Amino acid sequence: QVQLVESGGGLVQAGGSLRLSCAASGRTFSIYKLGWFRQAPGKEREFVATIRWSGDITDYADSVKGRFTISRDNAKNTVYLQMNSLKPEDTAVYYCAARTSIFGNFNSWGQGTQVTVSS
Questions:
Q1: In this structure, are residues 77 and 110 in contact, taking their beta carbons and an 8 Å threshold?
Q2: Per-residue DSSP letters for 15-26?
Q3: How many other C-beta atoms can be found within 10 angstroms of the C-beta atom of residue 79?
Q4: Which pairs count as long-range contacts for 4-7, CB under 8 Å and 24+ apart, including other chains?
Q5: 48-73, pLDDT tens digit by residue?
Q6: How far, in Å, CA of 28 to CA of 47, rounded?
């Protein structure tokens, strides 16, 4: 089992920046990929970005490419999401998730952290 705890959310004006952190614990050796997802009010949860636990392969949703950067610090068992040029439509609860297999779904989730971007 992998446990995930997010932090770093908050209220920011449009055009501003925030950095989210996700600390992993437990069976971290079993992690294949970590990701960030978000869910806005009244909408389904959507993919934001992913990163391999080993290596530097990343993937981003088109809506955040060029503005968000996902990175990790394996020594700290932490993954980050640097969010720049924030827009009101980025407002959502952001969730960190871990996948422990090459194929399949993300099977460990954090509790989420609220990001609110004011116009």
A1: no
A2: T--EEEEEEEEE
A3: 29
A4: 4/96, 4/97, 4/98, 4/108, 4/109, 4/110, 5/110, 5/111, 6/94, 6/95, 6/96, 6/110, 6/111, 6/112, 6/113, 7/113
A5: 999 999 878 999 999 999 999 999 99
A6: 22
Query: Phi then psi for 44, rounded to 5 degrees?
Result: -80, 160
Q: Put residue 10 in one of left, alpha, beta given phi > 0 → left and psi -120 to 50 → alpha.
A: left
User: Which amino acid would we find at residue 27?
Assistant: R
What is the DSSP secondary-structure string of 50-75? EEESSS--EEE-TTTTTTEEEEEEGG
